[in-house]
Amino acid sequence: MAERSFLSISTNDLKNGMALNLPEGLMTVVEFQHVKPGKGGVLERTFRADEKVPLAVIDKREMQYLYRDGGALVFMDNESYDQLHVDASDLGDAVNYLKEGDAAILPMYDGDIVGVELPAAVELTVTETEPGVQGDRVSGARKPATLETGLVVQVPLFVEAGERIKVDTRSGEYLARA
Fold first, then answer.
1. Residues 115-161: pLDDT tens digits?
2. How many CB atoms are located within 10 Å of the residue 3 CB?
3. Could you tell me the CA-to-CA distances from 112 to 51, 54, 59, 63, 86 in Å, in that order?
4. Is the distance from CB of 112 to CB of 81 less than 8 angstroms?
5. Alpha carbon separation from 81 to 60, 63, 84, 85, 105 (Å, rounded)
6. What's the CA gap between 27 and 133, in Å, rounded?
7. Based on the number of CB atoms within 10 Å of its own CB, is 38 exposed (0-12), middle (13-18) or buried (19 or more)?
8. Helix, strand, coil abundance in the chain, percent, nearest 5
């Protein structure tokens, strides 16, 4: 087994978005304060000034989602054209927003997929929803709609099956007709 070398970085040089290889696992810096630790977050750690911490080098690869193969999604690397099978469970909620042919950024660490980056909004087709009732224009009223990926979102009453809509990938909410 090849010995892995680890890079380290001073805590004075931390920036939001950096990945660290801490004893608790791979972590991303979401907020840092030089005086007192921030509130909330998944893991809160306090470091001394200029302490060395292990930096994780994340390789972000642009890939195209090709098709589903059982419980995995098959992606093609846009540079090498290699195909990669990724367990749907490793992608979390992102599977609700990916359709065949879509592009996604897959961050990799030590050869493993450690997440997925999607655009802020995607366009998906409504496959099933109740028809809107003529004259039913209650302001702000919503109804459930099933999208082509299987995701169910609340949409305005005027949205019909077959229409394309924009959905926010961070909140899963309807944004507009596409």
1. 888 888 999 999 999 987 655 566 678 899 999 999 999 999 889 99
2. 4
3. 28, 18, 10, 14, 9
4. no
5. 15, 9, 9, 13, 14
6. 49
7. exposed
8. 5, 45, 50
